[in-house]
Amino acid sequence: MSPPPGNPRTDDTALRRALWRFEYGHLSDRRIKRLLRTAYLRATRDFGELEAGVPEVRRHDPALLAARDAFRARADDAIHREHFRAALDEVLRGRRTLAAMRALVQAAGKIEMAAGAVGRLRDHARVPRLRALPCIRAPAELLAAAQARMAGKRYTQAGYLADASLAESAPIERRERAANTRREALEARIERVRSLCAETRALAGTDEADPVADGSLDAVAALARDGFVTLAERLAGELAFSLAARGRLHRELRREGALSPGDDAVLRGVAAAGPEAWASATAALWRSRVEAGVRRVAAQRDRVDRAGALLDAGTGKRAPT
Question: Distance between CA atoms of 159 and 155, rounded to whole angstroms?
């Protein structure tokens, strides 16, 4: 009959206490031998349940397989010879090896699933600009971090990172049926982004920096038509966010009277100042507006002071200061 499953941490503590009781004469040798044999058989059974993952273990950390084989031989021999202290050490070492193997196999499976989801996302986002957006880039970066932890033999961390990657990518890489109102809202959002691109085209500088010219918006619209509604919503939202600074600059230039409809000369001049210059240009416009307001307030104060001085001169009285 196979031994029942147990909690490794509490089992380790129980075995240490049992050995201590045996060494102080409070537990018979027959009892401690039975406890150690049960722990050995349980670990051996658990190793057997991981046989399907042996190819992954051999690929990533073959030393674990050598440690497993050493445990099987040494622990059995120590129990048979009734070297109970050595047997306990081998059982505890075997359990650590088992935990590492289990974490490796689980992490490898999670990384494989995460890699599949990330690959499908990259296939959907076929335009380089879309692949650089956070909803596509973040799962790929988490996957790369998981693979790096795997290479560094930190299997538990690798599993956590692979889970995080899958949690980011899985909800958005599937097809789904969406209500008409949701689809209409998405189409309206895409059109708003398209209109903003048309108004601020000269600020882009190159086709690669413009979602209409490089095909990004068309790709998002195609994803929505193909049923990848959540992914299309995320991409459209992140495209809109990436264009927000350009839109703010465009509005500020119009408010300042620096632009007339169809006037691209000023926009080209701003775009030529450097990559993504519209963000700093908008800040400069805001600063100049504040400075202009300060100057207006100072001028009003000067006019009031001059009027007061003239009034004092006419009446011969001085206003209290």
Answer: 6
- AA letter at 1: M
The DSSP output letter for 274 is S
Contact 127, 216 (CB under 8 A): yes
Contact 197, 210 (CB under 8 A): yes
Count of CB atoms situated within 10 Å of the CB of 38: 17
Please say whether the beta carbons of 67 and 93 come within 8 A.
yes
User: How many Cα atoms occupy the beta-carbon half-sphere of 64 within 13 Å?
Assistant: 25
Measure the CA–CA gap between 85 and 81, rounded to whole angstroms.
11
How far apart, in Å, do the first and last CA atoms of the chain sit?
A: 103
CA 292, 293, 298: angle at the middle one, nearest 5? 95
Tell me how far apart the alpha carbons of residues 294 and 316 are, in angstroms, rounded to a whole number: 33
Region for residue 215 given its phi and psi (left: phi exceeds 0; alpha: psi -120 to 50; beta: otherwise):
left
With contact defined as beta carbons under 8 Å apart, do 213 and 200 qualify?
Answer: no
CA dist., res. 200 & res. 193, Å (int): 11
Question: Amino acid identity, residue 255?
Answer: R
Alpha helices (runs of H) in 26-132, residue ranges in sequence order: 29-49, 54-60, 62-80, 84-124, 128-131
* 230-289 confidence digits (pLDDT tens): 999 999 988 888 787 777 766 766 666 555 554 554 555 554 444 445 455 555 555 555
**Taking the complete model, does pTM exceed 0.90, yes or no?**
no
Q: Is the distance from CB of 18 to CB of 32 less than 8 angstroms? A: yes
